Amino acid sequence: MSQPASINPDEAAFFGRLAADWWNPRGTSAMLHRITPVRVAHIRELALAHFGLDARSRRPLAGLAALDVGCGAGLMAEPLARMGAHTSAIDAAPENIAVARDHATAGGLAIDYQCIAVEELAATGARFDLITCLEVVEHVAGRDAFFAALASLLKPGGLAVFSTPNRTPASWAVVIAGAEHITRTIPKGAHDWSRFFTPAELAEALTAAGLVPGEPAGLSWRPGSGFVINRDVAVNYFLAAVKA
Question: What is the DSSP string of 50-106?
Answer without folding.
Answer: HHT--TT-SSTTTT-EEEEES-TTTTTHHHHHHTT-EEEEEES-HHHHHHHHHHHHH
